[in-house]
Design goal:
With about 675 residues, the chain is α+β, with helices and mostly antiparallel strands. It has eleven helices and 38 strands. Strands 1-31-32-34-33-35-36-37-38 form a nine-stranded mixed beta sheet, sandwiched between helices. Strands 2, 3, 4, 5 and 6 form a five-stranded antiparallel beta sheet that branches. It has a four-stranded antiparallel beta sheet with strand order 7-8-9-10, with no helix packed on it. It is globular, with a radius of gyration of 25 Å.
Length: about 675
């Protein structure tokens, strides 16, 4: 069992005399400060990141502030003011300049700017179109690189008609000159580039491309290509069949001698997804592609909401995050004539570091520390041998939030389905008393190819601490199908086990906490979003003792869900066939056919423009549960909202609906 840190006095003010222990409000979660992906200069002196005040795992675009930190003096300042919301930024390879895109806070078109970090002078960039303002990086120190349509390409005509499954138009690499504002094509490919990364010296770009990246029938075939920007020569390194979740990381060493490639492990899946990953490295000078021997069965750490943090190179090696369940393992990989050496790093914050950047020598790192009961902060530290030493906090985020009592947390484990060890994260309420029996709320993660980490993940989708603040314990189960526990564990729900194994893991987790004397087994509720909402709908057909259930963006019906590309992909991954190809098999599996077993009051919620869970499928589920259940069923639709809802108003309404439902049917009986 791994105990997480109780809020450290060096991090927060919770243990300072006079610190507030007042009740949390939804706004504490909806508007908490989050440090976006940060970039450290090669000399280790300058760091930039986007600080957002938002609650989603992918925060909305109308509240970003570009922040600068002088790492050596541990001083921080904002490079943008309250009039702008920063949507993207990039640090130049020499670490002297930052480019950023921003929109007015009240809404409007996106503009781009250049900031000289020596004097913080800001210069607007002219001739900018929507393409570079969306996603960009530096190509050398004098150009920006981005993707866009080839010159002369006609825009898709979607006003009159949309052709389903039509091949997309090509997407190429283009450049923007910081000297004269000229936009020019860089690549001449005829397929769609989805991921790309330029070398710091500007001589190369590694990219991956497919003619149909969203192909759902067989999976997309991607080309991994090295483009020489000086000659235009392209070298295809390898091809790989991947699924619709094709996010993997490319990372160059500061001296441009090596590029690291996170390679998705398909493992024979009928439709590959990002369930596990290994690591390759390519040297343009030697033209050698080799595997980095991780010597770790679970492979690289995978966080689908932070897809560019696993590999952090320095000259001669890289810092790697290895998958280790709830707490990733940070290792230092170094290469010499004798091969690769992996050194696991130790230190005060080891195990709760979820992102890191290194200087060119590998002797200094900046990292994001957080835990299930501690909001994130950025730290600078030295690395000596296997030790992370002399950590210094660089940020002071969420000063109001961290003065409140956020309770404590721990990681626990038990025997779940198929006798496998299953891990879960427990969050305890403020003032928790050992030996006292508390109500339990199961908070189930989405995916299923995701994981509940021992990290701060409070969002409008998963408001853990708003629930514990009511005096409940929460348990988040890393059920079969979750990532970071090995490929076999992730693949175990194939072949008709999509519901059975995860629900068994969750129910045995409840028994585990009851046996430990933590919770009252007769006072249990459940909530989840996305796949968490799907499993919630299944769980209440199996356990009639549950007092309250909240299913966000969930469905119990595959017949309608396969109208959605995400739905048919899920069928190909986990069932092999659609419900129209094998209706008998699905009838025995789908919870929608077991609605008469439901005895738990159910709240369903979904956005009307959800592209992941088809709203029509949620409607079918609602009708079946409303008719079959012997308990109240409520269905709330959020107008014009996608899977990850974007407006504070709808996010706040979702939280309030959820808490009110738990109040009425779980907490009112206490």
């Amino acid at each position: 069992m791994i105990l997480t840190y109780i809020l450290l006095s060096a991090l927060v003010l919770a243990f300072i005399p006079g610190a507030s222990a007042s009740t949390l409000t939804p706004d504490d979660i909806l508007y908490m400060e989050t440090p976006g992906h940060f970039t450290l200069s090669a000399d280790g002196g300058n760091l930039v990141y986007i600080r957002s005040a938002g609650t989603d795992l992918t925060p909305p675009a109308n509240n970003g502030t570009l922040m600068y930190i002088d790492v050596n003096s541990a001083t921080e300042l904002a490079l943008t003011g309250p009039d702008q919301s920063v949507t993207a930024c990039a640090l130049s390879p020499d670490g002297k300049t930052v480019a950023y895109a921003a929109m007015p806070r009240e809404g409007g078109p996106v503009s781009m700017y250049l900031v000289d970090l020596s004097d913080k002078k800001r210069t607007p960039l002219s001739g900018i179109t929507d393409e570079p303002a969306g996603s960009f990086a530096f190509l050398g120190n004098d150009r920006l690189i981005f993707t866009g349509a080839p010159a002369g390409a006609a825009p898709a005509d979607t006003e009159v008609a949309i052709v389903v499954d039509e091949l997309p138009e090509p997407v190429i690499l283009r450049t923007y000159s910081l000297k004269d504002g000229v936009i020019a094509p860089l690549s001449a490919n005829n397929d769609v580039i989805t991921i790309w990364s330029p070398s710091p010296d500007g001589k190369y770009v590694l990219y991956k491309a497919s003619t149909d990246p969203k192909s759902w029938e067989t999976g997309a075939t991607f080309r991994y290509v090295l483009l020489n920007t000086l000659t235009g020569e392209e070298k295809e390194l390898f091809i790989l069949v991947e699924g619709y979740q094709d996010e993997n990381q490319f990372a160059w060493s500061p001296d441009s001698s090596d590029v690291y490639i996170e390679k998705i492990i398909n493992g024979g899946l009928r439709y590959p997804v990002e369930n596990a990953a290994e690591l390759l490295v390519y040297s343009p000078a030697t033209q050698k592609l080799e595997e980095v021997p991780l010597n770790w069965e679970r492979g690289l750490h995978i966080d689908i909401f932070n897809s560019d943090i696993e590999v952090n190179p320095f000259n001669g090696g890289a810092y790697l995050f290895l998958a280790d369940g709830t707490n990733p393992k940070l290792v230092r990989a170094t290469r010499s004539n004798g091969g690769w050496k992996m050194t696991t790093l130790n230190g005060r914050d080891a195990g709760n570091i979820f992102a890191a950047e290194s200087d060119s020598t590998g002797s200094t790192i900046v990292y994001n520390y957080n835990s299930a009961s501690s909001p994130p902060q950025l730290f600078r530290a030295a690395v000596s041998g296997s030790e992370i030493t002399d950590p210094v906090m660089l940020t002071g985020l969420n000063q109001d939030l961290i003065q409140k009592d956020l309770g404590t947390s721990e990681v626990t484990k038990w025997k779940g389905a198929q006798g496998d060890t299953v891990y879960g994260v427990i969050r305890y309420p403020p003032g928790y008393e050992k030996g006292k029996l508390y109500p339990l709320v199961l908070v189930i993660h989405g995916g299923p190819n995701y994981a509940d980490f021992d990290s701060w993940r409070d969002t409008w989708e998963f408001p853990y601490h708003l629930i514990t603040d009511k005096g409940a314990v929460t348990l988040s189960v890393n059920y079969h199908g979750s990532t970071n526990f090995g490929l076999d564990f992730a693949r175990s729900i194939e072949g008709g086990n999509y519901y059975s194994l995860p629900t068994e893991d969750i129910m045995t987790g409840v028994d585990h906490l009851a046996e430990r004397g933590i919770i009252n087994r007769s006072q249990v509720g459940v909530t989840g979003w996305s796949n968490g909402g799907i499993l919630t709908l299944a769980l209440i057909t199996k356990d009639p003792t549950l007092k309250a259930a909240v299913s966000g963006a969930g469905t119990a019906d595959e017949n309608s869900q396969i109208a959605n590309t995400n739905g048919i992909v899920m069928d190909k991954m986990y069932y092999e066939k659609s419900p129209y190809q094998d209706p008998a098999a699905f009838r025995s599996i789908l919870p929608v056919y077991q609605a008469e077993n439901v005895r738990t009051p159910l709240l369903m919620m979904i956005g009307t423009k959800d592209p992941q869970v088809d709203p029509s499928s949620a409607w079918v589920t609602y009708r079946a549960y409303k008719e079959g259940s012997q308990a109240p069923v409520r269905f709330v639709l959020f107008k014009d909202q996608p899977h990850h809802m974007t407006t504070p108003e709808t996010q706040a309404r979702k939280i309030q609906e959820e808490l009110d439902w738990l109040d009425q049917y779980l907490f009112s009986s206490l």
